[in-house]
Amino acid sequence: MKFLQYLKNLSKFLICFIPPIVLIIILIFIPTLFTLVMCFENYGNSIRIILGKLEDRNFVNSIYNSFLYTLCTVTLQIILGYLTALLMFFIPKNRFSIFIWIIFFLPYAVPSTVAVISWSMSLREEGFISYVLKYFFNIDNYSWFKEYLLLSTIIVSVWQFYPFVYIGLLTSLRKIPHNLLRSSEIDGARFYQKIKYIIFPQTKKTLISIIVLRILLMFTKFDTPYLMGINNKSNELTLLPTYIYSLINISGINTISASAAMYFPLILVMLFTSIFILLRIKKLVNN
Amino acid sequence: MKKNPILELENIHVEYFDESDKRYFTILDKFNLSVNSGEFVAIIGDSGAGKTTLLDFIAGFIKTTNESKNNFIYKIILKLEMSYKATGTVKISGDDVSSVEPMDRNVGLVMQNFSLYDHYNVKDNLAFPLKMKGINKKEILRDVNSVAEKLGILRLLNNKISEISGGERQRVAIGKLLLKKPKIALFDEAFSNLDFKLRQVLRKNVIENYLSNENALDTGERAVLYVTHDLMDFFIADKIVIFKKNKVTRKSDYEILYSDKDKKAWQKLEHSGLYKIQLNEFEQLFNNYKP
Amino acid sequence: MKRIFILIILISLLFFSLFPYGVLFIASCSSIPVDKGLHSISISELTIINFQHVFTNEFNILLCNTLRVSLTTTFIIIIFSILLSYSITRFNFKYKVYIEYILISCYLIPPILLIIPYSRLLLAFNLLNSLTGLVLTNTAFCFPVCAWFMIRYFESISTDLDKSGALDGASTFKILWNILIPQAKTGIIAISVLSFILSWNDISFSFFFSDNIEFKTFADGLEQFRISDPTYTNMPSFAASSFIVVTIAILLFGLLEYSIDKKFNKI
Ligand SMILES: Nc1ncnc2c1ncn2[C@@H]1O[C@H](COP(=O)(O)OP(=O)(O)OP(=O)(O)O)[C@@H](O)[C@H]1O
Ligand SMILES: [Mg+2]
Q1: What pLDDT is attached to residue A3?
Q2: Residues pairing with B41 in the sheet
Q3: DSSP label at residue A255
Q4: What are the residues whose beta carbons fall under 8 Å from the beta carbon of B91, sequence distance 6 or more?
Q5: C-chain residues within 8 Å CB-CB of A159?
Q6: Beta partners for B24?
Q7: Which of A86, C5, C108, C138 is the most exposed place for a label (fewest CB within 10 A)?
Q8: Which residue of B has its CA nearest to A193?
Q9: Which residue's CA lies nearest to atom 17 of ligand 1?
Q10: Among C27, C208, C184, residue whose Cα is nearest residue C133
Q11: For residue B270, what are the domain limits?
């Protein structure tokens, strides 16, 4: 009897568990493994290549740029996203809030191609932003896009991806029981105290996971920086992914293992930090 | 000597917005009540009769919406965000607080679902009102310990909220109110999860002591409003507010029974015919309660 | 005072987020090439003629492909991530934490490096230059993060609900269908938005795995189109078609959010 019960449970579990696991193994695990093997394949050779590349200023630059880019975009995204989510949370529901929701969500639904085109139209020398800056603040007619490529790439990326933070945080804000906020008001919490002591701790878990995801995503972001670069027709901005892409492009698929190898140490570092942070989430929440 | 009223409610009128009908319906109308210092007011009524609504009004979660105010922006804001309409005044110790935020009202509330902060442990929950006042940590710890001892939750202080039982949660919520020491304490079925004996002990220790200022440091005026379905609570009530819900219009009528020289408030309950209670049964309960 | 402060922040954020969309709109309405900058366009020069030229054959194919790919991807991802998170959070087995770590670390590998194994995989199944191949690669790319979010959601639903459902006599799958899925509805919607957008905006898979316009998605097709026109002479019609695609995506999500909004309307 007990055995039958056990079998029944097991079959239910397997029905749920097998299909996604098969999907993960075939579509994700095997290709990832393949990539890793590729990294290791001629590791000795790859290390030589990396050591050689260390003299290449572009390579060193691209690492530095990548870190800067990730740091700036993630920080700004989190700040803007949290602010928007809080705003949407505190603005009472009404018949216009759906439009506000849509407008805040809009950047995320814009394909990178379109976003880059649209921003570069306004960041050009003849563009709208330079025009406004010239008109009101008498700042010279820069082509912001050319002069400050990293800065404008950061602006575009923040614009593109802060809705991700906003949506994630808003769903977790909406899960806070309404009475908890009321209760804190009765206990004498002011507006900022309410945010500090109730809202922030209640959303901390989501916030940390979003930060981790954002860091990983921005660090490996390829399309926006790449499109910004080719729009500009200069190689001034090199991030790690675009650098690798240029290597593939120049020297063909054969050196891919070398370029993969270049990525590999960084992947390892990020893997460990993210697992470390993930482990800490559980501890943070428990305390 | 005539006492001054500590809480005065005048002409309270609340309408809620019904999502399915797309119109407002009245729930409380022309409600008047005045409570003197040191009084214990029991509130009973049908489910959905507006008891919680009344407490929300006193606490300040439902604020008066003044439609006659001739201000363009105000009107837009009103149109956008109100799911209710309310008029009336609330006075605490003579001051009109109708437009004051809940945190400045000197009111405490134990909610029906005793919402506690589940990201804190019991001790931090209890300490929260004091922390908001900016009291230093040593004093907070001392006060928290004394209140926790009184409520019998001393050994739970370091537990998480999810690890304690319903009755214990209720006691934590009550403890928070006691630590805040508000002028007006509102309890929304605050003892409903406790067993008979504990309820009796707490009623004596908490409410009566609270009203008589026994353990309090300051000697301010106090009043308790208390939503209950428990007969025992009526014995000590100075006033009983009875809500009667009209099923069709959803509006509640109310009646207030006062204790006077001849009769206690609870003795009038029988004659009101609202609750079908036999007086002798009631008296028996009362006699059991007295010693 | 507080309200005015909030209003100012709100308006500036709204402007920030709407600004490039507005630029796109003006550009798509201009009758002349937009070399001189948009501020130099006068109102009399605005026209809607560009929108009429949008629905050419090519554009229709691209749009249709994109819709098919992203809707299918979203559907697959939702089904599989619900199954996975249900089995992980509701059944006890050893090593289940590690599945989460695997999911997250898979997300770490930059898609650029996955291009090669994927192209070999697709070649083996003869799926290069097909929409199925795009669906598969997009699914592989979005699944880890979506499943991870879904697990978080299922974790936050109390097991008391399962217990009460079981006491009411519901079978395992009825509990899943009638209790857990409605509870996780916001999460499901958020994930569907995420996966839809990721595949809707995808450039690289379409760029690497299909060379025929019949099997390309919009973002990539647009990029090809732009590369072939470096002097921006076709800018207005280009802007018009982007404007339409963005608007379609936005309307879809407006509808979705509106439907949850109605369900969860509280004060
Ligand atoms: N925000 C709201 N919007 C619309 N209707 C509401 C709202 N809050 C309460 N109501 C309605 O008002 C009525 C009174 O609610 P209230 O919570 O005051 O009842 P109660 O007397 O406390 O009932 P109980 O004894 O069950 O707690 C109910 O019918 C409820 O449906
Ligand atoms: Mg109630």
Answers
A1: 85
A2: B225, B239
A3: G
A4: B5, B7, B8, B9, B10, B97
A5: 16-17, 20
A6: B17
A7: C5
A8: B132
A9: B52
A10: C208
A11: 5-288
What pLDDT score was predicted for residue A263?
A: 65
Q: Which atom of ligand 1 is nearest to the CA of B54?
A: 18
Residue where the block lists tokens 């067993």:
B195
Q: Best of C78, C108, C172, C259 to disrupt the A interface by mutation (most A CBs within 10 Å)?
A: C108
Residue C140 in contact with residue A28, Cβ under 8 Å? Answer: yes
Check: CB of residue C76 under 8 Å from CB of residue C135: yes
Each domain of chain A, given as residue ranges in start order, spans 1-41, 48-286
Which of the four CATH numbers 2.60.40.420, 1.10.3720.10, 3.30.70.20, 3.20.20.80 does domain A48-286 have?
Answer: 1.10.3720.10
Total tally of structural domains belonging to chain C: 2
Residue B291 reports pLDDT greater than 50? no
Cβ <8 Å between B80 and A92: yes
* Radius of gyration, alpha carbons of chain C: 23
pLDDT of residue C266: 38
pLDDT of residue A82: 94
| CA gap A163, C21 in Å, rounded | 15
How far apart, in Å, are the Cα atoms of B202 and each of A64, A275, B31, B147, B175? 65, 49, 30, 12, 11
Alpha carbon distance C107, C74 (integer Å): 17
In one letter, which amino acid is B230? D
Nearest of A180, A4, A159 to residue A84 by alpha carbon = A159
Residue B29 sits at φ, ψ, to 5 deg, of -140, 135
Mean pLDDT for C83-108 is 80
Q: What is the C-alpha to C-alpha distance for residues A76 and B158, in angstroms, rounded to an integer?
A: 37
B139: part of which helix (H) or strand (E)? Answer: helix B137-151
Q: Does A268 contact chain C (CB < 8 Å)?
A: no
* Facing residue for B109 by CB, picked from A186, A190, A197: A186
Q: What is the 3-state secondary structure (H, E, C) of A126-172?
A: CCHHHHHHHHHHCCCCCCHHHHCHHHHHHHHHHHHHHHHHHHHHHHH
pLDDT at A195: 92
Residue B41: φ, ψ to 5°: -110, 120
Taking the CA atoms of residue C173, residue C179, residue C181 and residue C184 in that order, the dihedral angle to the nearest 10 degrees is: -140
Q: Is the distance from CB of B41 to CB of B238 less than 8 angstroms?
A: yes
For C17, the domain range is 2-47
Q: What is the CA radius of gyration of chain A?
A: 24
Tell whether A92 is within 8 A of chain C (Cβ).
yes
Chains touching chain C at 3 or more Cβ pairs under 8 angstroms? Answer: A, B
For the record, the structure tokens of B126 come out as 């209890």
Q: What is the CATH number of the domain that holds B140?
A: 3.40.50.300
Confidence of residue C68 (pLDDT cuts 50, 70, 90): very high
**C-alpha C192: how far from its chain's center?**
7
Distance from CA of B24 to the nearest CA of C (A): 14
Are C146 and A213 contacting, i.e. CB atoms less than 8 angstroms apart?
A: no
Query: Do C118 and C244 lie in a common domain?
Result: yes
Phi, psi of B19 (to 5 degrees): -65, -35
Q: Which long-range contacts (CB under 8 A, 24 or more apart) does C47-56 make?
A: C50/C236, C50/C237, C50/C239, C50/C240, C51/C240, C51/C244, C53/C237, C53/C240, C54/C237, C54/C240, C54/C241, C54/C244
Residues 6+ positions from A278 with CB-CB distance below 8 Å? A209, A212, C100, C101, C104
**Residue C66 sits in a domain of what CATH number?**
1.10.3720.10
Q: What are phi and psi of C157, to 5 degrees?
A: -85, 125
Cβ-Cβ pairs closer than 8 A, B with C, add up to 4
Q: What is the average per-residue pLDDT within C76-104?
A: 84
Nearest beta carbon to residue A108 from set C116, C140, C197: C197
